[in-house]
Structures are given as C-alpha cells and as structure tokens.
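User: Sequence recovery, please. Input:
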C-alpha cells in the first residue's frame, strides 16, 4: 500500500519516526511525504528565536534523516487540493499523486486583515522581520492570545520602538485565569509593550491600523495572530468538513466520511483547540492507527486530556506558566520550557532523546 503524508507538521514527524523504528513488514510498501521545505519548524521555539535568545537552528528539524530512516520518499511540493473519491492528492507543480492511505497534517493559518503579515508560515514571518527597518515604526501584534502575547514579548527585545499588542476582546489572554493574565500583563509592562483591548483590526493602510471606530498610527509591520483558517481548504474535496473547511476527524483521527483518510494537528477538526501541543500529543496515536489501518486491525480511539501546560517566554530569560489553573513564573520556568522545546527538536533531528 502507498501511504502519503501531506504536510510536515508536528504529528507527521512522529509518524515518520514511528515507521523508522518499526519492523519492515509493519510499514507501508511505499511511504511518501509531500512538503515544500526540507526542514520543519518547531513552533514552541520560534519566540525564543525572534527574541534572539536562541539560534535559528533551535527551531529547525531537518527532514532528510527522518525520511532516510523511515525509507520514505520526499516530494518537494505544495499540496493544493484533494479528490477523495478518486484518491488523488493535487500538488502545485507535480501531477496528482495517487494514494491508498492518506494522512493530513497541513496546519492552519491566521485570519489576516488586509495589509498585515500572517504569523505563519514561520519563514514568512522571519523574512518580514529581517526586512524591517527599525526606524520605520513600531511592530503591532494583532491578537493577544498565548501566541500573540509571547510574540510581543519576544519582539520587545529587538531594536526599534517597543511593540504594540492589540486584542478584539476585552482582555489580554481572553478565557484564561485572571492570575495568569495578571502575570502576563506585568511581563508586558516590564518589557515596554503597550496593549489595547476591544480593538478589532480591520486593515493596515499607509502605516495606520484601522478599527471600526478609530485608528493607530506609526505602524511599520502588523503581524496577525488572530483566528484560524485551514492552510488547505478541502470543502470541495469530498471529505466531510466543518464550515471553515477543516476536515472532520473521529476519535481515531480518521475522516468521518472516508476511512482511507486520517489527519491531526491544526489543519483538521478533531474537537480540540488549535495549538501545537495537541498535534504533538496526537502524533503517537496517529502513527499507531496508520499502522493498524495498514494491517487491517481495529483502530485505537484517542482520549486526550482536556488541559495542557502553557509556558510563555517573557524575553527576559524567564517564563510564565499555567497548569491546572495554577499560574507561576520565574527563570526556572524558562529553563523548563527550553528543556521541553529542546527535547522535542532533538527527538526528531536525530540527536538523541528516544
């Protein structure tokens, strides 16, 4: 059978590692990864790279060793669509790719107001920051959720005016406990980051961010960390999808409409928040169920825990965290975050950590 992995998200890294460690007769006859890049970016380490606290390599996972160990083929291309009825994956430059079993881990992108830069793909963010003239104005981060808040704290370490953080809801870190929000606001103040809530951004135009009733000027770059849309819209693929175009998966991470399609991560609808931690946790379950599908064995349902550890770097060698409703902060939390992030990268970069 031919198993095709669409995208090199966190879950698919574990799938490749799984087949690299499996007996030859337990894997597919042919395994193919489709992704346009030779390296995967680990999202958890990106703020540390932006802040200059970590080298770029701290967030990079070269795919070649994983592909070689798993006996997988790499097609250097972008997935553009899917014909689920004919089992064909549409690609940007190459002919449609037939499959027997397909797994989707193509990720999600932010909803991007006109004139702004999406926080993902990460390489686009890195390029925008590299091209930025610090004297041109300040950087605004749109969306004060966990990702946006941590990015604003990281940007505060870079040359130029202190960044601005904007949120459409009444609070920074909406929906999270008040003690955790208070710690984050204190960190923002110490970093010199100003913020404004109840400000839904409509567009960036001629150096000004426009909301429904007001505007904010002297903005050289606005980075959108708001909402999510699928990087690959599959509403016309034949798969069962939600209204936004995310394919619906069942508890075994298999398509609700097509039993030859699986998926995990931010790019699918699996009843979980859009956050990298869930893709990491889904990886082993996805890998196991792909093996079971290849062998014709019953699938294993996934029962994820409903809470996840949150660790946000402050850009000052400390981190603030939240676990089971308890907030904390300190240099020790940053060391813990660095260890967790480093362990993930080492696991898949072939430098240890089984």
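Assistant: Recovered sequence (354 residues):
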């Amino acid at each position: 059978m031919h198993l095709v992995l669409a995208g090199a998200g966190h879950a698919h890294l574990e799938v490749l590692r799984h087949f690299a460690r499996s007996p030859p007769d337990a894997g597919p006859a042919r395994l193919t990864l489709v992704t346009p890049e030779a390296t995967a970016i680990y999202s958890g380490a990106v703020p540390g790279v932006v802040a200059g606290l970590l080298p770029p390599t701290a967030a990079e996972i070269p795919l070649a060793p994983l592909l070689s160990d798993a006996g997988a083929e790499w097609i250097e291309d972008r997935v553009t669509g899917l014909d689920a009825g004919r089992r064909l994956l549409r690609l940007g430059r190459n002919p449609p790719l037939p499959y027997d079993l397909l797994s989707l881990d193509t990720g999600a992108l932010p909803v991007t107001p006109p004139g702004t830069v999406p926080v993902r793909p990460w390489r686009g963010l890195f390029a925008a920051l590299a091209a930025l003239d610090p004297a041109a104005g300040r950087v605004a981060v749109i969306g004060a959720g966990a990702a946006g808040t941590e990015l604003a704290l990281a940007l505060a370490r870079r040359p130029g005016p202190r960044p601005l953080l904007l949120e459409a809801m009444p609070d920074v870190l909406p929906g999270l406990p008040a003690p955790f929000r208070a710690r984050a606001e204190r960190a923002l103040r110490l970093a010199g980051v100003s913020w404004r809530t109840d400000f839904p951004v409509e567009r960036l135009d001629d150096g000004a961010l426009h909301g429904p009733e007001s505007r904010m000027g002297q903005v050289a770059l606005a980075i959108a960390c708001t909402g999510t849309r699928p990087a690959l819209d599959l509403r016309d693929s034949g798969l069962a999808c939600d209204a936004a175009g995310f394919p619906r998966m069942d508890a075994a991470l298999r398509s609700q409409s097509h039993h030859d399609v699986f998926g995990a991560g931010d790019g699918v609808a699996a009843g979980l928040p859009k956050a990298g931690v869930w893709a990491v946790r889904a990886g082993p379950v996805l890998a196991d169920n792909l093996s079971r599908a290849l062998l014709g064995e019953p699938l294993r349902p996934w029962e994820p825990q409903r809470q996840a550890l949150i660790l946000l770097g402050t850009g000052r060698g400390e981190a603030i965290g939240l676990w089971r409703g308890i907030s904390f902060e300190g240099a020790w939390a940053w060391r813990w975050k660095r260890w967790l992030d480093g362990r993930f990268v080492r696991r898949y970069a072939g430098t240890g950590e089984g």
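The chain has a mean pLDDT of 91.
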